[in-house]
Each structure stands twice: as C-alpha cells, then as structure tokens.
Design goal:
The complex is a heterodimer. Chain A is of the alpha+beta class. Chain A contains 12 helices and 12 strands. Chain B has one domain. Classes of the chains: A alpha+beta, B mainly alpha. The interface between A and B is large, with 53 and 47 residues.
C-alpha cells in the first residue's frame, strides 16, 4: 500500500492541472481547428500540434511503493506533474520539447536489462522487476537545471547510484563511470531520423568521475510523483545529478560501465566549447551563447509568471559537492 | 470578374486576419498557461518564426506578381512587411519582458555578448528603419534614397536566418530549410543583383 504523507511544499489544487482538464484543453484546441492555421504561419513543431492531439493513449505508469526519507528535503515549490511529463529534452523521441510525450507513448520498457560492468569484481544485470526491488526506494526532491537556463523541481523516486556501484565492487582501475542509453532506432525515432533526432550521435553516452558517482546526491531514478517514470522522462531508469546541467542526467540506461579513462560524452563531443564533461551548474561560467547567471523556474503560471531567479553555484548543492572540485579551475573544467 | 480594387481589399482583409488571429489566440493561451510547460519559450519561438515567415512571404510577392502578371499583388507588399515588423517587435519584447523579465542590464549584456542576439538585434534595427520609412509621406520625401534603404530588406532577411541558425543547439535542419528558401528567393533576383554590381 502506498502511504502518502503530506509535505509542507505539497501543491495546492490551483497549482496542479487536473488530467481531465488537460485533456479537455486538447479537445478545445482541436475544436478550434487552430493547429492548422497556426502551423501555416508559424511553421511546424509548435506545441499546439502536440496539444491538439489526444493524450488518451499516453504512456502508462504505475504507483510505486517507497520509504519516506528523513534526509532534509528542499522546500522549493514543485513543478506540476503535467509540466514535468510534457516538457522534455529527450532527443531520441524528438528534439522539440513537446515531442517526447508523443513519440514515446508506445515505448516498451519491460523487458529491460541494465548491465553493470567494466572494472568491477562482481558484474551483474538487473531486469525490469529488479530495478524496483533490488534497492530500497526513497523519494528525493531535486532541482533540475537545464543548460538552456530553465529549471524545474521534481520529486524523484529511486536509489543511490553509490549503492548500485558498491554492489558490483569496483576494482582499483575504476576511475570513471560511463552510462549508455538504449539504442533501438525502431522504438526511438530520433535515432533513425536526423530531423527528429536533432543531429546528435547515438547511443547517448554520459559519464561521471567515480567520486562524483559515489556522492550521496547521485541518484538513479525509477519514478517521479509517486509513480514509475513516464517514457519521456527516461523510463525505466535514469540518472539524476542535480548539481549538474540536465543533459548529464542520462535517460533510459542500459549499461553502467566502470572505466579507467574519462568517457567521451555525447554533448561534449558535439560541441566541446559549449558543453563540458563536468557541466556543473555554475552562474559564473556562461554558455558561449547565453548567460547562466539566472534561470526561469518552471512552475504553474503563464506568460506573466515572474519566474526568473538567480542561479546558485552547483544549483544550490555546494554544501554536498563543492569538496569534489576543491582544487579545480571551474572556468577551465566547465 | 472581380475589380482590382476589390481583390486588393479582399487580400488585405485576409492578411489582417491571418496575421492577427494567431497572435490573439497564442497570447491568450500563453497568458493563461494553456500552451506547453514553458509558455515563454512558445511565444518567443512563435513570434520569431512568424516574423521570418512573413519576411519570406514578402519576398515572394514581386516574383509572383511578375510570373503570373498580377501587378496588383504589389499593393499588399507593404502590409506584409509591416506585419513582419510587428512580429519582430513582439519577438524582441517577449525576450525582454517574459524571458529576461525586465532585467535591462542583462538585456544589454546579451545583445553585446551573444553574437546570435547581436545579429538578431541588427536585423531588428534595419526592419524598424524600413517600417518607419514605409509611410507614404516619408517615401516621397526620400526620393531615390528610399529604394536603396529598402534594398536592405535582403540583408536583414539573411541576418534573421543567421540568427535562427545560430540560436539552436544541434537541430540545424529547420534553419537550413529557411536558408534554402531564402536562397531561392534571392536567386530569382540575380539579374537585379548583377546590375547593382555593375554600377
């Protein structure tokens, strides 16, 4: 049974878009026949196109049991669930933010295999059920700061990456952790269609230094808002490193490999001057094409929501992670 | 057979509706948080792409008028150009009001520090000059200089395409398509450009 305890930062009814309202809205837009007219003028890919489609067949999630954590949680206002699951950078399912919710609808996550391999004494594989049963699940409310200068606050469910790595017993050659997303062009249209996939190389690869991976904040998420992850958010299992830009938090992972050399990561390879290996949230180091000093926090509210806030060093997690980088020049190792 | 005057009236009415209705609906939806999760991004992209679309449509007018021998089409070119300016004005203001939320120092910094925004701003300065001088009174006063100023239309459309191409993270196909469309529209004018070069 799922026991729900009310949090002090629980959303009020006004903050949450009821699913039925959400669907009604889609019907309304469809009725207006507006998607066509706006497409004519504004080109393809406008969010209305997705909104105007029915969401009845959306990706199915199921409630998850989890233990309440006593660790101190942040008290920022949560981003409504409807927004968390409809605004995604997951290029495997389309490079526009409203595309993954559509293109990932029929993504098959069961059966799944997650391999833990490389420089370890006890490599192992988790199948779909084991992703949820091997470790005690806890809820963690984390800020997610995208490199594009917007952010969300999301209640994740999952377990510490460190617990998984310890179980595999890394040997002394393990220095880095390399993560890989599923490569399945049949299911992930962005991997076979360059237009949808935004021109990045697949499979998506990310990496952490071993000490970063072992930090208490590094989290493997299997759910959000009390349920299993929707496909567009990285089902069935994804990484969450809240002090780093969102693209580090790789989705739909099939392989975690302990390695000796720093892995070549997807965005870093594509544009090394714009996306570093570390990608720590840092208001003092701008992206070459935009400022990282502030961000827009996505919660509820429309165009007039005054949501621009200062970006914090390490996304506000300096206390937990600053130690990892104490002798590093973060302007050079961005 | 419709009279030319009536045809122009009809066409202008369509342009007004086609340009204004989407703006009204989009702002209504954005203000009430009925678009995607990030209405600010939606409205910035909508007005930006809308401005570029209108610029390209404007560039279609004279080739169409020549090819189909429909001289009256030239009478709606100014209106289309002004709507392109209107969308560009909304685009810039969306950036300042809703994206940067009146952080004027950040606004100035971004224009100076970010080349793709510098390029966009330069295009906006050009289109503003063209919009102001589109007044009949000024046009008469300016005589020959009017046409040379309004030839900057080509330059500013190229700048807008660069601005779009430069703004994306890796999804370069859509901006590339715009470049191709622009190239075709400019190619149709190659004789004109050759004449300029000879002078």
């Amino acid at each position: 049974m799922l026991i729900k305890i009310k949090r002090n930062n629980e959303l009020t009814e006004n903050d949450v878009t009821d699913e039925s309202v959400y669907k009604e809205r889609r019907k309304l837009l469809k009725g207006l026949g507006f998607a066509g007219a706006s497409t004519l003028l504004a080109g393809t890919g406008l969010s209305l196109n997705a909104l105007a489609k029915d969401s009845d067949s959306s990706f199915k999630t199921t409630p998850l049991k989890f233990t309440k954590t006593n660790a101190k949680q942040i008290t920022d206002k949560l981003t409504p669930e409807a927004k968390v699951i409809s605004h995604n950078n997951f290029y495997e399912f389309g490079a526009k933010k409203d595309q993954p919710i559509e293109y990932a609808k029929n993504f098959k996550v069961d059966p799944w295999q997650l391999k833990i391999t490389g420089e370890v004494n006890k490599p192992f594989t988790l199948d779909y059920e084991q992703l949820f049963s091997s470790f005690e699940l806890e809820e963690r409310i984390y800020r997610l700061r995208c490199v594009e200068a917007w952010s969300m606050v999301i209640p994740w469910l999952g377990f510490r990456l460190a617990d998984l790595i310890k179980k595999a017993e890394p040997n002394s050659d393990a220095k880095y952790v390399k993560f890989k997303t599923l490569y399945d062009p049949k299911q992930m249209p962005g991997q076979s269609n360059r237009y949808l996939g935004g021109g990045i190389n697949y499979p998506y690869v990310e990496g952490l230094r071993l000490d970063e991976a072992m930090n208490d904040l590094s989290f493997l998420s299997v759910g959000l808002y009390g349920k299993t992850l929707p496909a567009q958010n990285g089902a069935p299992i994804r990484l969450v490193t809240p002090w780093k830009y969102g693209f580090k938090s790789i989705k739909s992972i099939v392989e975690i490999e302990l390695v000796t050399r720093k892995p070549k990561t997807t965005w870093n390879k594509l544009a090394p001057n714009e996306y570093g290996f570390y990608a720590n949230v840092n208001p003092n180091v701008d992206h070459p094409r935009w400022s990282q000093a502030s961000e827009r926090r996505i919660t509820s509210g429309g165009l007039f929501a005054r949501n621009r806030i200062e970006t914090q060093m390490f996304n506000g997690y300096a206390e937990q992670v600053a130690e990892l980088y104490k002798n590093m020049n973060l302007k050079r190792y961005y | 057979m419709l009279s030319t005057k009536y045809k122009i009236w009809l066409l202008k009415t369509l342009i007004h509706l086609g340009a204004l209705l989407p703006v009204v609906v989009m702002y209504y939806l954005a203000i009430n948080d009925l678009l995607s999760a990030d209405p600010v991004e939606d409205i910035i992209h909508f007005t930006g792409i809308g401005a570029l679309n209108l610029l390209l449509i404007t560039l279609c007018v004279s080739p169409l008028a020549r090819f189909f021998k429909l001289g009256f089409l030239l009478q709606v070119r100014r209106l289309l150009g002004l709507y392109a300016f209107f969308y560009a004005l909304l685009h810039l203001n969306n950036f300042l009001f809703f994206e940067l939320q009146f952080d004027f120092s950040l606004f100035i910094d971004e224009i100076v520090d970010r080349p793709y925004i510098t390029v966009g701003m330069l295009a906006f300065v050009f289109i503003t000059a063209l919009a102001i001088t589109s007044l009949t009174l000024l046009r008469r006063k300016m005589g020959k200089t009017w046409q040379s100023l309004h030839n900057y239309n080509y330059v500013l459309t190229i700048l807008v395409c660069i601005h779009f191409f430069w703004s994306v993270k890796s999804e370069i196909i859509e901006p590339s398509i715009y470049f191709i469309m622009l190239f075709v529209l400019l190619y149709l004018r190659k004789d004109k450009f050759k004449r300029w070069l000879k002078r």
